[in-house]
Write a structure and sequence with these properties.
Elements (H helix, E strand, L loop, with lengths): L2 H9 L3 H44 L12 H13 L5 H13 L12 H7 L5 H14 L3 H9 L2 H6 L4 H10 L14 E2 L13 H10 L1 H8 L3 E12 L2 E11 L4 E11 L2 H18 L8 E8 L2 H8 L5 E8 L5 H12 L4
Parallel strand pairs: 1-6, 4-5, 5-6
Antiparallel strand pairs: 2-3, 3-4
Length: 344
């Protein structure tokens, strides 16, 4: 009999051996995580100190003024010659920005990598920069997810749905989900579906595109959403009704129903969602569930019509827009500047 097979037969079936394998695996996984964290900490501090050296050199007086804009160009060539890659002009520029944005090294979060900070430092507004820092930490975003949310102007979209104090709260704490209104982003940006803005498409095509890109859709919806299913059937009397997508929100502890409309949201769409919510409240929700939330998501909505349609409804029901293209950052920022005024 094969020697390895004899060893496996002798040791492999015992609980003690399985515990040994598990303990060693955990040990090495923890060691790898600590090593990565340590390397990231050293790299981040080295980038910060490089920025500090550059800024202090620039502030050294007239004798160094001759370098001017050529400083980073010359520095890039010399450091690359001596130390290899990693010192191109772009990197040096952002190392300098890192120091200027965070004059105290202790304010840097080592939960974020240099690659995170490289993207965050592209923000021109301090509040926006703070928001993406907090949100990356809260949500555990990788760099790809951070890029997508910044590109879709998440901060501006969330900030416009609140007040001045709310904008400060966003910057200081990130986006906290405490109540049903906190899960609404108006507009929701669904550019990842790949559906052209002007193409005529059916609602089920949008629904299929969202399911095919569920990871991106969950990222857009925000923290706490768990996908339950699509075309969820409700048998009421002799009729069968279907809601497009059903989620469960793990933070709010409630079901979230989403109905998709390819055009403008109509008043009867609100009534239909209210019917679905009443059904879920009675037939689906468990005693420890909170009341369900309904979101009617359409390409357009008439604010006044929605105000009248939603008036008097006791269920948590919202009408929101979606866009199949990224919003114009300049327009959102202009609206946000009007909201903030000169007080912040």
């Amino acid at each position: 009999m094969d020697k390895d097979l004899i060893i496996n037969n002798t040791l492999g079936a015992t609980d003690d051996y399985n515990l040994l394998v598990n303990n060693i695996s955990v040990l090495w996984n923890n060691a790898k995580e600590k090593a990565i964290t340590a390397v990231n900490t050293e790299l981040l501090e080295a980038n910060w100190r490089t920025g500090q050296y550059i800024v202090e050199f620039e502030q050294g007086g007239k004798a160094r003024a001759e370098y001017g804009k050529q400083l980073l160009v010359k520095l890039s060539k010399d450091l690359t010659r001596l130390n290899g890659k990693g010192f191109n002009r772009s990197n040096l520029t952002y190392m300098r920005k890192l120091y200027l944005a965070f004059p105290k090294c202790g304010t840097l979060s080592h939960k974020l990598t240099w690659s995170h900070y490289y993207e965050i430092l592209k923000c021109e507004d301090t509040l926006e920069m703070q928001f993406y820092m907090k949100q990356c930490i809260n949500e555990g975003w990788n760099v790809r997810e951070l890029k997508r949310q910044m590109k879709s102007c998440l901060f501006q979209r969330l900030a416009l749905s609140t007040d001045k104090e709310g904008v400060l709260l966003l910057a200081n704490e990130g986006h906290q989900v405490m109540k049903p209104q906190d899960i609404i982003r108006d507009p929701f940006v669904l550019e990842f579906t790949g559906l052209p803005q002007k193409k005529r498409y059916k609602e089920n095509e949008l629904e299929s595109a969202l399911k095919a890109n569920m990871e991106q859709f969950l990222l857009e919806l925000g923290r706490g959403f768990a996908f339950i299913g699509r075309q969820y059937q409700m048998h009421i009397g002799s009729r069968v009704f279907k809601v497009d997508m059903v989620f469960y929100h793990c933070i709010l502890k409630c079901y979230v129903l989403i109905d998709l409309k390819r055009a403008e949201i109509k008043h009867n769409d609100i009534g239909q969602m209210n019917l679905y919510l009443n059904y879920f409240q009675t037939e689906v929700c468990q005693p420890d569930d909170n009341p369900p939330i309904g979101i009617v998501l359409g390409a357009r909505k008439d604010e006044l019509l929605m105000e009248y349609a939603l008036q008097g409804i006791t269920n948590q029901l919202f009408a929101a827009k979606y866009q199949l293209y990224l919003p114009k950052r300049e327009e959102l920022q202009a609206q946000l500047d009007l909201l903030l005024g000169n007080d912040i």
